[in-house]
């Protein structure tokens, strides 16, 4: 302590002497007097030796004194600060990895069991490598199995190990078809799913809970695999929240700036490897975010970020699925923000304009591919091109949806209605081709079933109502639509019995069957109204009323209600009621109700044998069918057993 005081007093004395000398030179008297109360060893004031010795002495003092003059706040050596922070992070990471690695390695199955889990009818890794290329990600199950021994090493990277386990877990959920050969019995579905569940729970609790482990390029790749696993399980709620979290980490890592820098440097020179990898991961996250937003009807978080430059989709005469899907996702931000069906005239106009703009951009993009590329054969092997086409029509269906749900009596509505019907039919056709070729448990089955279900419900509603009966050009091919609906319904009912990944198909088929039964009921005469209420994901709560009154009953009711004030044309949803058996789940919500209710009759009822309206089921999305517990993780695991 004495040495520290000696050091401080020495500096104060030198400063005092310097100030006094300056004042003397300026013609004044010294104003500062230094009273020395502590004896100290003689040193040469102001000498370099004193400074050097004093600094050496202070370096030997305790840490709290050293921090007074040597700390990160006062230091201008930012590189040294960064290196120290990295060193501390590496030490903490090493400690955590030593604890996590053994827990993860205990989940690795025997090599022969791993090989059996990776025997699949459709290699989803190859499809993802073509559609959504990801840095350092295996592009086949052979490459995945080839890293088995590496994953068992005591020094394997924890993030790589967790990513490898998740990839195996996603693949293990694909249940192969039972064969009739007499070979060794395959792994049971229960064992596959138990392994997948154990991996997801362990990775989430031990790895994904640490942002500084996930906050790397490899860590974000791990996070995207986890999102795919949740989607395959039917946990869209969890997948959506996790994806948002990983996108936020990407922002903290500076990925948007890296992507912008990479785009600029591509025109000026070569992009360094690190920047290119960051840009690739960010563009991948933007594409996935926008695609999931379309599928679950929520605006993507990354819509304010521009994606890749519009590269040509054709390379050497071949359509590039990854470029097409990336450019297609750049169109999706136009879809959101104009879907409030209860809005005023200005909202309706913006919605219609937005739909036209999306259709124009999608049509221009589709025109860059040859017409032969759009031809589809049900017997063709499943290709990434088919997935791209399916997503293309899902976006068009989503774009026209708000306009169609308003049921406006205008020519603009008529054109939008026809365009929406075409998009829904295209979704239904491609759904059949894709769904038949994917194995049970494939991670995107629930998403495919959800889009097809939405398309079929819209086709049923639009084919059984005539908002513009006076315009012959807006009359639709009702029998053709019924044929498409019947094909999709049959396929969904077939897939409902396949176990893993069939939950949405089962619920969707039940609701479609109830709607079809409602529309096909014979008119029994009398004063009866057939009614149905269904909570349809992506659309809302649909209330359907089938008007079955005969002309004689119409005349009778007109006379009985001659003294009453007639309501405006259409159906006031407030007159409806939800049956006591109503359940917010997609399948349980569908129910038929024959009622002897007396309803106001207006001339427009002569045109519309079917009246329907749509309202949001709740202000909280947690009450929506695809976000509720019935579609969540616990129920899915129970149903798969």
TrEMBL record:
Domain of life, per lineage: Eukaryota
Span list, region Disordered: 30-56
Protein name per its UniProtKB record: Transcription factor domain-containing protein
């Amino acid at each position: 302590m004495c040495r520290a005081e000696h050091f401080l007093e020495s500096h104060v004395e030198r400063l005092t002497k310097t100030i006094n000398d300056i004042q003397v030179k300026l013609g004044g008297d010294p104003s500062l007097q230094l009273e020395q109360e502590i004896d100290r060893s003689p040193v040469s004031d102001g000498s370099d030796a004193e400074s050097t010795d004093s600094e050496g002495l202070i370096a030997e003092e305790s840490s709290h004194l050293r921090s007074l003059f040597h700390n990160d706040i006062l230091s201008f050596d930012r590189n040294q600060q960064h290196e120290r922070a990295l060193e501390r992070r590496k030490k903490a990471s090493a400690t955590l990895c030593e604890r996590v690695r053994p827990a993860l390695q205990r989940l690795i199955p025997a090599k022969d069991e791993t090989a059996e889990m990776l025997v699949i009818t459709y290699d989803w890794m190859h499809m993802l490598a073509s559609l959504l290329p990801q840095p350092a990600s295996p592009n086949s199950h052979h490459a995945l199995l080839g890293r088995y021994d590496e994953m068992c090493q005591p020094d394997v990277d924890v993030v790589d190990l967790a990513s490898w386990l998740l990839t195996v877990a996603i693949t293990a959920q694909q249940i192969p078809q039972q064969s009739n050969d007499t070979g060794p019995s395959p792994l049971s579905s229960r064992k596959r799913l138990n392994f997948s569940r154990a991996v997801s729970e362990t990775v989430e609790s031990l790895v994904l809970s640490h942002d500084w482990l996930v906050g790397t390029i490899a860590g974000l790749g791990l996070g995207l695999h986890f999102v795919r696993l949740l989607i395959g399980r039917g946990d869209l709620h969890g997948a959506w929240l996790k994806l948002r979290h990983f996108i936020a980490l990407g922002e903290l890592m500076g990925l948007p700036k890296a992507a912008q820098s990479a785009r600029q440097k591509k025109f000026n020179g070569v992009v360094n490897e690190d920047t290119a990898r960051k840009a690739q991961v960010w563009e991948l996250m933007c594409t996935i975010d926008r695609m999931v937003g379309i599928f679950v009807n929520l605006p993507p978080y990354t819509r304010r970020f521009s994606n890749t430059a519009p590269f040509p989709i054709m390379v050497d005469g071949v359509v590039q699925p990854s470029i097409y899907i990336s450019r297609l996702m750049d169109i999706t931000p136009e879809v959101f923000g104009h879907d409030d069906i209860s809005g005023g005239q200005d909202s309706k106009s913006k919605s219609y304009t937005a739909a036209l703009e999306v259709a124009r951009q999608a049509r221009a993009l589709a025109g860059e591919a040859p017409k032969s590329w759009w031809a589809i054969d049900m017997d063709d092997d499943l290709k990434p091109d088919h997935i791209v086409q399916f997503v293309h029509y899902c976006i068009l269906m989503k774009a026209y949806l708000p306009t169609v749900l308003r049921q406006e009596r205008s020519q603009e509505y008529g054109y939008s209605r026809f365009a929406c019907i075409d998009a829904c039919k295209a979704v239904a056709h491609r759904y059949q081709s894709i769904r038949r070729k994917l194995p049970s448990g494939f991670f995107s089955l629930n998403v495919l079933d959800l889009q097809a279900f939405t398309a079929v419900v819209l086709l049923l509603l639009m084919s059984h109502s005539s908002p513009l009966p006076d315009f012959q050009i807006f009359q639709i091919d009702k029998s053709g639509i019924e044929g498409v609906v019947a094909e999709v319904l049959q396929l969904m009912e077939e897939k409902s019995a396949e176990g893993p990944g069939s939950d949405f198909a089962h619920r969707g088929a039940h609701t479609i069957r109830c709607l079809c039964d409602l529309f096909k009921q014979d008119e029994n005469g009398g004063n009866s109204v057939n009614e149905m209420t269904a909570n349809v994901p992506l659309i809302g709560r649909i209330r359907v009323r089938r008007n079955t009154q005969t002309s004689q009953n119409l005349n009778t009711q007109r006379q009985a209600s001659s003294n009453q004030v007639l309501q405006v044309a259409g159906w006031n949803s407030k007159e409806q009621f939800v049956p006591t058996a109503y359940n917010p789940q997609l399948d349980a919500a569908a129910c038929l109700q024959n009622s002897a209710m007396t309803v106001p009759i207006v001339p427009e009822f002569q045109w519309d044998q079917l009246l329907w309206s749509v309202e949001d089921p709740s202000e909280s999305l947690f009450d929506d069918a695809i976000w509720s517990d019935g579609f969540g993780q616990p129920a899915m695991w129970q149903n798969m057993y």
